[in-house]
Design brief:
13 helices, two-stranded antiparallel ribbon, alpha+beta, 3 domains
């Protein structure tokens, strides 16, 4: 392996046949480069689909009433369904095991102002559990709590972007009063949200304050909940469907009416994401294997050609006393050296291209493109082994040729 004379012969052979060496290496480099780019883009697409559901907790459901589309039990179609506080109590009573947190949610767009700054934001009346459902994190002050609900306090938690829009730079919103549609609310917290800028332009007040101030009723626009995280995806989907059926029965809605009550179930989204990720994995694997096979075939053909081209040279070596084993080892080491260097070069270039292109690819919905170095290294080693095998088979045949026959080769 570390015979200096053998390596000197290998480098001399490569130096005398530069084009042959470059073509051999290019095949490997291009195969690994293409494999790396495809893998990186495939991972980016999977991140994109996963990101569609990253704004909320994975075990979340969002139940929203609508208008009926079918007549049922003497009620005409087109009837507007409204949830009340007692619907929330009904779910809490009948699904105590399945539900870990229930959140009422009302919403409206109103004008906000602080001194001279004005803007329009979405005002949401919520229960404290919304913080965990939306994965909002207070980084100043606190969130809405149960005492605020009980007292119907005029307090508000605002998103980071709302503070930036309304308050001068360097001025904290905590403890300040902002004008919300003519009413003063005390800011008790500023939060961040993984959903990004849009989610950080939301504002939250106690649901009881919302109901008493804007309508003086117990209407609930949307029921949000977190189901038991111990449930499997299939169990969560089945639970969501059963809960909607029970709510339809409670509100005299046809079981076949798909519009009256809508349930956005994260479990269904996760299931769809897994399906899409599986398809993407299969597609990337299929294309990548094709790329690797093309590289293997390419390097094999080149090695066959190289050995055939060197038949006379090998005959001379045998005539001068070279053994078949030494000839085979020389060709195999040359193949190993070329595939190793070329494979490593393809790995570096491919990884660099993916990292360089990752920010630009986000404009095309390919988020955080990245590569798994373990898989790339495995592919590189596979091509190296293929190069060694590709060099061994023709070298073995060439080593068996008699010197007199090899010297006559044209």
């Amino acid at each position: 392996m570390f015979d200096i004379d053998r390596w000197i012969e290998i480098f001399q052979s490569m130096g005398k046949n530069k084009l042959r060496t470059v073509l051999s290496g290019f095949t490997i480099t291009f195969a690994i480069l293409l494999f790396t780019i495809l893998l990186g883009m495939g991972n980016g697409l999977k991140n994109t689909f996963a990101g569609f559901f990253s704004r909320d907790a994975e075990n979340a459901m969002f139940i929203q009433p609508n208008r009926t589309s079918k007549a049922f039990r003497g009620f005409q179609s087109g009837r507007r369904i409204e949830f009340k506080n007692d619907d929330v109590e009904y779910l809490a009573k009948n699904y105590a095991y399945e539900i870990s947190s229930l959140v009422r949610r009302n919403r409206m767009h109103v004008d906000f102002s602080y001194k001279e700054e004005k803007a329009d934001y979405e005002l949401l009346g919520v229960d404290p559990g919304i913080q965990f459902l939306e994965m909002a994190t207070p980084y100043k002050g606190r969130f809405i709590n149960q005492l605020d609900i009980s007292k119907k306090s005029k307090v508000i938690a605002i998103g980071r972007k709302v503070e930036e829009d309304l308050f001068p730079k360097g001025v904290s919103a905590i403890g300040k009063h902002i004008n919300v549609a003519g009413l003063a609310y005390k800011v008790v917290g500023v939060f961040t949200d993984p959903g990004g800028d849009n989610e950080e332009r939301l504002t939250y007040i106690p649901i009881t304050t919302f109901q008493s101030t804007y309508g003086n009723n117990d209407t609930v626009h949307q029921i949000n909940l977190l189901y038991n995280p111990d449930m499997s995806t299939d169990e969560a989907i089945a639970f969501g469907a059963k809960m909607v059926r029970d709510l339809k029965d409670k509100h005299n809605i046809s079981p076949n009416d798909q519009r009256a009550i809508r349930n956005t179930n994260r479990a269904e989204g996760i299931q769809e994401t897994k399906g899409v990720s599986f398809v993407l994995d299969i597609l990337v694997i299929f294309i990548s294997i094709g790329t690797l096979i093309a590289g293997i075939v390419g390097i094999s053909n080149i090695m066959v050609y190289i050995v055939k081209e060197r038949t006379k040279e090998l005959g001379i070596r045998k005539a001068l006393g070279a053994t078949p084993v030494s000839i085979i080892m020389m060709i195999m080491f040359e193949a190993l050296f070329i595939t190793s260097i070329a494979g490593y070069l393809g790995l570096l270039i491919g990884t660099g291209v993916v990292e360089w292109a990752a920010p630009m690819l986000e404009e095309y919905f390919i988020k955080e493109a990245s590569v798994d170095l373990g898989i790339i290294i495995f592919a590189t080693v596979l091509l190296m082994i293929s190069g060694i095998i590709a060099g061994y088979l023709p070298a073995r045949r060439a080593a068996k040729i008699k010197p007199i026959v090899a010297l006559r080769d044209d």
